[in-house]
Amino acid sequence: MSDVASAVKANPIYALVFLILSFAAGILLAYFRGPQTPVTEPLATETVAALEVAESDAPISVPVEAEAQPDPGVLKARLTDAEAKIRRLEQELVAVAEKQAAFALVVSEQRERPAGMLAETNAPAAPESDAAAVNAASATDRLEDDLARLGARPTKRGHLVTLTESELRFPVGAGTLDSARSEGLQAIAEVLGRHERLTARIEGHTDRSGSASKNLALSQERARSVKDALAALGVDAARIEIVGMGETRPLDDGDTAQARQRNRRVEVYLIEP
Questions:
Q1: 79 sits in which H/E element
Q2: Which domain holds residue 207?
Q3: Maximum Cα–Cα distance for the chain, whole Å?
């Protein structure tokens, strides 16, 4: 080292060359090491800037790189796969629909089978039921015709036929019928004989002459006499009910002879079940 220093001092050219070489060596060293930048201050500056942006309401702008264009081959493969999945789903839906249709057919057959069996069971009886319905309708028509000829009046209690005192010819104050047959009783007996489902309710009525107790007993006796007459004409006595009403239900509240004659009567109600 001392030799170099002695040579530099002895010859100034050597000094210049030494300086040039030292400068060049410094440049080369700096080049290979790269630029040396301080780290602490920039990092702190970036951190503060990030905090300011986070606290601010302004929208954050982020540099967006240009979107990469998808590969056509990848898109085609994805499309093919999606189409295959759709075809599989369609096939599964068709299979499910076929199963549901088959199940519905089985249920329908099971429901129709008891109805068919019942129809087969009742098939022979159908003509009989039709005939019974026809017979019932015919019987109803005949009953209406008979009641119309009898002069019966429909009421809530039944079809009413009124037999007057002059028709029944009861003796004054007595409850025994005259030996001669009444045409009205004969007609009632015929209707009851043709329509056995009918029952009869016979109510006896008197006027207000005499005591109420005697009138009640007289009305009861006259109702029984009418029942006995119908039974003698062939009507089952079990189908006939008798009630004595006395003077409680007058048709005419007057005190004339005509009013009293109207009130002395026997009412026959023909009752359908």
A1: helix 72-122
A2: 139-271
A3: 196
Q: Which residues have CB under 8 Å from 139's CB, separation 6+?
A: 195
CA gyration radius for the chain?
A: 64
Q: Which residue has the tokens 């905090």?
A: 51
Can you tell me the distance from the alpha carbon of 119 to that of 104, in angstroms, rounded to the nearest whole number?
23
Distance, CA of 261 to CA of 264 (rounded, Å): 5
Is there a single domain that holds both residue 243 and residue 164?
yes
Lowest-pLDDT range of 68-82, 89-103, 115-129, 214-228: 115-129
Which among 223, 208, 236 has a CA at the least distance from the CA of 267? 223
Estimate the crossing angle of helix 212-232 against helix 183-194, to 10 degrees.
60
Same domain, 118 and 143: no
Q: Which of 270, 220, 269, 266 minimizes the C-alpha distance to 246?
A: 220
Does residue 207 have a pLDDT over 80? yes
Give yes or no for residue 61 having a pLDDT over 80.
Answer: no
pTM for this entry: 0.52
Query: 183 and 265: one domain?
Result: yes
Given the structure tokens 């309401």, which residue do they identify?
Answer: 57
Instruction: Identify whether the C-beta of residue 210 lies closer than 8 Å to the C-beta of residue 235.
Output: no
Which among 196, 206, 269, 179 is positioned nearest to 236, based on CA atoms? 196
Give the whole-angstrom CA distance, residue 221 versus residue 204: 8
How far apart, in Å, are the Cα atoms of 163 and each of 148, 166, 169, 238?
Answer: 16, 8, 10, 21
